[in-house]
Predict the structure.
Amino acid sequence: MEQKMHDRIGAIHTRRYLLSALTILLLLPVVMTGCAKSADEGTWVIGFSQVTVKEPWRVVFNENLRAKALEYGDAVDLIVLDADDRTENQVEHIQIFISRQVDAILISPKEASGCSRAIQEATEAGIPVIVLDRDTTWKGYAAFIGASNLVIGRAAGTYAVQQLGGAGSAEGKIYEICGALASTPAQERRDGFHEVVGQEPGVVILGGLDGDWKLDQGKAIAQDALQIHRDIDIIYAHNDPMAYGAYQAAREMGVADRIRFLGIDGLPEEGAVWVRNGILAATFLYSTPGEAGLEIAIDILEGRREITPGERITLPTATITAENVTEFLKQDDPRP
Ligand code: FRU
């Protein structure tokens, strides 16, 4: 009885708060207490390792995931851990989840390698692992869920080519600011973009530095770039915060009006609003994968879905520009 209470308190405790790397240490005694596998009590314990909460997209991701978990009521105990942007913390998260014997693990990893071994260990321990948004080098996990970043990169390339005069006659200079290049979204957003724009002999792509998805780094890279290249037509950043940072740099230098800024994510409170306000020319929707991840985990646990190792579940994307942003924001607004 006391043990049960203890488990329950631990679960409630962990469900309510997103834990920083430091608090993991404090949490250890709680999550290590006894076996959490509680299917017989009708509760699935799901551990989620989130790479960071420093970026708005991650905060929305967690909110959506928590809201989904609440829909399951007492049937789901969700433990959300924040890795503070460090792979080693995510490895530790998985080790904690394995020793706690959670029923399933969700992870959105910082980079492609680094967590693979721990994910393999969890899988071999019989825990289904669902990888979200950034892929890993080891592909034996239960499922990967996210939008196709190659498709997004190509859509951004197609948009940029249109802006510069259309396929076959496009001309101009594009400056690219990459996300963390050790992660698959940055690699694929770059590759898809280059695949399309590379077919235009009149267009040059400059840059390609790693801004680690951060607004400040995007701004610093753009400040340097704009001093060297005074004639940039488009800045393509791999997410909206870096595109906004680049816009800030250009505005401070008095050149924002003649540059078009492209970002990715399309959060209603962020990128989409920046498109509506004319700051970004376009953003590309990158839906958060938490809700689908949790649903699939529960379907697997309840026998409604079989595991096909390495299966990919692709979320849709969309191009958001001044033409459709009002419609997009209306759809997202729950108010009547
Ligand atoms: C948030 C973020 C998003 C981006 C995604 C790529 O951490 O940088 O802005 O689309 O990660 O994994």
The CA atoms of residues 20 and 82 lie 5 Å apart. Residues 52, 55, 57-58, 133-134, 179, 183, 185, 213, 239, 264-265, 286 surround beta-D-fructofuranose (CB under 6 Å).
